[in-house]
Amino acid sequence: MISFTDVLELSKTYRTIPLAKEVAKKKLSELNLSILKKSYSYLLLLESGEHGEEHGRFTYLSPSPFLIIQSKDQQIRLSGEEEVMRQLKEAGIDRLKDQPKKMIEMILKTYRSPKIPTLPYFTGGAIGYFSYEWVKRSERIETKHQRSSPFSEFHLAFIKELLVFDHEQERLLFIDNLIIDPNETKEKKEEKYRHTMKSLEEKAEYWRQFIAENSSPPIEISKEKEEIKPFQSSFTKEQFVEGVKRLKEAIRQGEIFQAVLSLKQSIKTDADAVLVYQILRKINPSPYMVYLQMADETIIGASPETLVKIVGDEIATYPIAGTRPRGKTPLEEKQLAEELQNDPKEIAEHVMLIDLARNDLGKVSQPGSVKVAKKMKIEKYSHVMHLVSKVIGKLKAETTSLDVLEATFPAGTVSGAPKVRAMELIAKLEREERGPYAGAVAAISFNGNLDTCITIRSIFFHQGTAYLQSGAGIVYDSIPEKEYEEVANKAKAMMKAIAIAEGQRE
């Protein structure tokens, strides 16, 4: 427990100090999300289908942001609690709407908090998403004649109250952040501290009772109600195959080494988004499970792939390239893994992405600190296995979380190499903005830590329509028809989740 003496010392450097109270031994997965969904316009849940030190130790839930920043229809919208808006206006932050990166950085700096070793990596900050088109803020990319996405360019909710389940220690915490004005007297700081501690106790008790009264059993899936309806596609099979051929020609001409062509699909649906999420979590558990309800936009994700992480002063990214299905027997599993590790096409593509990751991290890391910590290891998920590497670096001084995100965004695994030219060719072929697909879901902590996943294997809901998108990495010896099969297969789990939810709705 942080004492008032600790607060006085910390307030010399930090404006925001996280305070925590244990709520219960209950898991957040036992909480009935549907009740929260009906009560709040924003509901932010980040969890994992895996639990380990590398991924998924903590599950985060918050239904109560104190500040929203959103870029949509070429306008930056800033809204929040009255006192917060007054403080931002006094600091001149509201005048930075033509510089969104700087605006976000200034908000994070205003509420900078310490890293408390006994608390989770994320103790308050921004949760939300960046669409693929965010890259145009930092790179000049020719993308004429593209149809606009109905989603935001970015949409971030800043939170200072959250529930966190620690899967290692099996405890549920409620975190609230004490916000101190550095010019306040000692007496005023003590008054705020005591008020926040009292509020912390009351809110922890509220959530203890709420969870006890609103738990839900694990979702049961009724497969006989599974009927996948036709989706509207951005490409016919013939058009996609032709696009692959054009990218192969660009590779042959030396313009690029690789590019990721994607297929967008959509369907009108009244499926309940929470139910779709719960089903997707059950049929396709992944390292990053995401449920972001953000006003009229909802993002549901089952992403296997980190974009970039910062913990302390270490930056890490995990290139994934190379896929095989899981084996039906131990022998088949072993054979498929060996086949994957010895496939020249998969290895060549993966090595390119390692080089790209090293180059990206090199922009924001201390000289000589970038290295490959893990190279082409097999990682197994519910339905597939992947080749995965880990590239790390030491954070350069005066480098922000947004600098690191910008340096690595978008991932090479969803764009190509060289990135800029690959993205230009992709834009010409896909003909419409990707929106959240191939961007990132982010948790940007006030304490400097960062965790982001690439927004793949995800479903995006907006005004009664569900959108999903999947891509294939095109290289010199790609077989166009097989690449189409790959994008179709990647979409199946998401389509299945929607179909089951439609069949099971009340």
UniProtKB/TrEMBL annotation:
Q: Which InterPro entries match?
A: ADC_synthase (IPR005801), Anth_synth_I-like (IPR019999), Anth_synth_I_N (IPR006805), Chorismate_C (IPR015890)
Is the keyword Lyase assigned to this protein? yes
Q: Which reaction does it catalyse?
A: chorismate + L-glutamine = anthranilate + pyruvate + L-glutamate + H(+)
Q: Name the UniProt key words of this record, in alphabetical order.
A: Lyase, Magnesium, Metal-binding
Q: Which residue intervals define the domain Chorismate-utilising enzyme C-terminal in the entry? A: 237-490
Q: Which cofactors does the annotated protein need, by name?
A: Mg(2+)
Pfam families reported for this sequence: Anth_synt_I_N, Chorismate_bind
The yes or no answer to whether the keyword Oxidoreductase is present is no
The Gene Ontology biological process terms listed for this entry are: L-tryptophan biosynthetic process
The Swiss-Prot or TrEMBL record annotates one GO molecular function as: anthranilate synthase activity
User: Where is the Anthranilate synthase component I N-terminal domain positioned along the sequence?
Assistant: 40-173
Assembly and binders: Heterotetramer consisting of two non-identical subunits: a beta subunit (TrpG) and a large alpha subunit (TrpE).
What's this chain's function?
A: Part of a heterotetrameric complex that catalyzes the two-step biosynthesis of anthranilate, an intermediate in the biosynthesis of L-tryptophan. In the first step, the glutamine-binding beta subunit (TrpG) of anthranilate synthase (AS) provides the glutamine amidotransferase activity which generates ammonia as a substrate that, along with chorismate, is used in the second step, catalyzed by the large alpha subunit of AS (TrpE) to produce anthranilate. In the absence of TrpG, TrpE can synthesize anthranilate directly from chorismate and high concentrations of ammonia.
Record-given protein name: Anthranilate synthase component 1
Phylogenetic lineage: Bacteria, Bacillati, Bacillota, Bacilli, Bacillales
